[in-house]
Amino acid sequence: MKDFLRRTPRYFTANRKTEQQIPEDLWHKCSGCGDLIPSKQFQDNAKVCPRCTHHERLSADEWVSYLLDLDSWQEHDADLAPVDALGFVSPKDNYAKKLETLREQTHRPDAAICGVGAIGEVPLALCVSDFAFMGGSMGAVVGEKVARSAERAAELGMPLLTINASGGARMHEGMLSLMQMAKVSVALARLGEARQPHISLLLDNCYGGVTASYASSADIIIAEPRAHVGFAGPRVIEQTIRQKLPADFQTAEFLLEHGMIDVVASRAELKSVLARVLGLYTDKPRTEGRFAGHANGVQSYIRGV
Amino acid sequence: MADEQHTSEELTPWDIVQLARHPQRPHTLDYIRGLCEDFVELRGDRRFGDDRALLGGIGRFNGQSVVVLGHQKGSNTKENIQHNFGSPRPEGYRKALRLMQHAEKFGFPVLAFIDTPGADPSMGSEERGIGEAIAANLVVMAELDVPIVTTVIGEGGSGGALAIGVADRLLMLQYAIYSVASPEASAAILWRDASKAPDAAKAMKITAPDLHQLQIVDEIIPEPAGGAHLDTAATIAAVGASIQRHLDELQVLPGRELRQRRYEKYRSIGLVQQAQTIVLSTTEAP
Description:
heterodimer; A: about 300 residues; alpha/beta; 2-enoyl-CoA Hydratase, Chain A, domain 1; seven-stranded mixed sheet; two-stranded antiparallel ribbon; B: about 290 residues; eight-stranded mixed sheet
């Protein structure tokens, strides 16, 4: 009996062969309310806490699996890798080495993935930032991927969806990273000329040069509940005004109230919101069958990650 | 000032930061007064208010009507408070947007002057969408049908500077700086220690020669020995001559060609490489 209660691999590995995505730990501690949730339930709920509805961060890959129609994803430009153009070294920092380490850890060369896929059978270009890679910061590679995505969307005549969680411009690429704000803007202007919509999904958290460029110049802006979005970080503002900020400052709900975004959508309703919006920009009338592949979307999203 | 005898090669990036921020350095209004006749300031964003940190209007530059705009810093504390230390609020950027659209409507070139530590970090600016205000300007400048010549005259900091900086030509004074965030903010972000600002100034390549080498800046305008504050009139005249030379080149081009070249200029900034080892998507269906 005692042996059974000890969670040794002996008793649990059998199931795991078929369900490879279940993490080692069977319980997930919610970083919102601190409650323990069975990992399986947490995963099935798209990493949203069933008790406090805290939306845990998803990786770029998880977003692709969660939102896009099954088998519709084609990644592009996966081989774009950053260059240490400034030769950034300081007593405390070495950019080239940092990139190397992160590439090994994340198996990605930089902080975004892009490609084409479909949501509710509407094809679209997609660019997703990955917060796990240097806080999703925008250097030349992220800028290039956003710009190429916008141009791909313009060329193929499809909408663009950007999913944005980022600390802002990447300091280690200096002015080259600031100039990415201009680069993505000239590309987005082309998308506008092609009369294709740009939908920006804001996640916790999104700041600086990303908020001050493509994430905010979109035609439609959607945010996840309680996502923190702003230009200046709260720490900087507190230091400047020398007082504590209100609890809801820079949250999605705060932005909605101040007229800065269109929709606050929970993760569970996000796919249907996006499908509805995207459908309105295509000629094809919506049919019942279009959502067939989505009935179990929330439950099955984590498969294949 | 000890720096006066030195050439720019001997100044450290941090020395140049001090020169770029020198309170007696000519500011946007000095350039407007020095370069424009019949200047009429146009105020307000027609939405909420008028921002004194970003000023603009119409005037006659070498006989030609132009729209001029720029960040305004003060020469003393009182002026700096009036101008919010050159840090615009959303209203400043929305006024700039209005003036740029005004320029396009009437076929006036846009002359912009960058001199800001960055956009205003405050509750009010966030509430009124400072990020959106900057973002909107970037897209509008990408599409503007008239020539845009921007000059970095002092300190160029972050998106707050770029919001009037998506230009056909970017000129920069010899001892100006232009950075993704101020050296203090960069040090705070990178190492959580603002006192390491001199290290950040060095590592981040923020001086005019560095940015010219990175092909971000099109021309460096030389300053009088020791810095612009030692001979304001000569500096302003040099800036005016340089702007006119670039305008001459740009004004023969039709609007569509200007837009196309501006697109190519910004689209090509930033080095990336095609990696040897391709990391395949891990999201393919099982």
